């Protein structure tokens, strides 16, 4: 972030070295950044989600109005990975107040809950197979350790994705109570634990990421 003073710009008399347009652009548009999502990102989120899920299961975990709903109520529980201003991967979560997911968890945000329900993790098709999904999920789980009231993260997934989440530390709880059409899901849990010292230090590394001024964490 640059600050422009009140004094008029003074042209330098000596010749400055030429800078390629690509380098100039990076001063105003970082090559890679992670930040919380907002409602202005909703359409980009939904486009990635629709391509990722409709072609596979025929269903979207969140419809566009539901994406806007959660990005309005709890944007701090979302995380987006941007490449030169373009959204390439994201996570959307909300708070839940029970140990297991029910149908209400699909639409409700419980501000006093101690469980984060991860609704969706998706990566743009042209950026898959590059490790972005596991990296973003790791960052998100580390961030959750900064939230004193959060004790666990829950998600539901198809059986084919169980190994993916298992590698990130999730444990299988069993068959999820939620069904969509004729589809069933496995429910998985990630415990948010650790000593207070560890939680404070991790949080210290992320304070600027979630500051009110919406500063950006660069990768």
From TrEMBL:
Catalytic activity field: a 2-arylethylamine + acetyl-CoA = an N-acetyl-2-arylethylamine + CoA + H(+)
Primary localization class, coarse: cytoplasm
Domain of life: Eukaryota
Biological processes annotated in GO: circadian rhythm; melatonin biosynthetic process; response to light stimulus
PROSITE patterns cross-referenced by the UniProt entry: GNAT
Organism this protein belongs to: Cyclopterus lumpus (Lumpsucker)
Known EC number: 2.3.1.87
GO molecular function: aralkylamine N-acetyltransferase activity
Pathway: Aromatic compound metabolism; melatonin biosynthesis; melatonin from serotonin: step 1/2
Domain N-acetyltransferase: 32-203
One cellular-component annotation, GO: cytoplasm
Family to which this protein belongs: Belongs to the acetyltransferase family. AANAT subfamily.
Keyword set, alphabetical order: Acyltransferase, Biological rhythms, Cytoplasm, Melatonin biosynthesis, Phosphoprotein, Transferase
This protein's name: Serotonin N-acetyltransferase
């Amino acid at each position: 972030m640059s600050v422009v003073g009140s004094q008029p710009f003074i042209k330098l008399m000596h010749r400055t070295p030429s800078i390629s347009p690509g380098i100039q652009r990076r001063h105003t548009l970082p090559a890679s950044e992670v930040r919380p999502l907002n409602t202005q990102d909703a359409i980009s989120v939904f486009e990635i989600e629709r391509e990722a899920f409709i072609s596979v299961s025929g269903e979207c975990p969140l419809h566009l109005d539901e994406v806007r709903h959660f990005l309005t109520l709890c944007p701090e529980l979302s995380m987006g990975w941007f490449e030169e201003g373009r959204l390439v991967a994201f996570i959307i979560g909300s708070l839940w107040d029970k140990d297991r997911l029910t149908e209400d968890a699909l639409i409700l945000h419980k501000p006093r809950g101690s469980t984060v329900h991860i609704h969706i993790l998706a990566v743009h098709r042209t950026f898959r197979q590059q490790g972005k999904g596991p990296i973003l999920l790791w960052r998100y789980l580390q961030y959750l350790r900064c939230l004193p009231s959060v004790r666990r993260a829950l998600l539901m997934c198809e059986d084919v994705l169980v190994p993916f989440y298992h590698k990130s530390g999730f444990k299988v709880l069993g068959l999820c109570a939620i069904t969509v059409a004729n589809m069933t899901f496995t429910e998985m849990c990630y415990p948010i634990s650790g000593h207070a010292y560890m939680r404070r230090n991790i949080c210290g590394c992320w304070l600027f990421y979630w500051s009110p001024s919406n500063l950006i964490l660069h990768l």
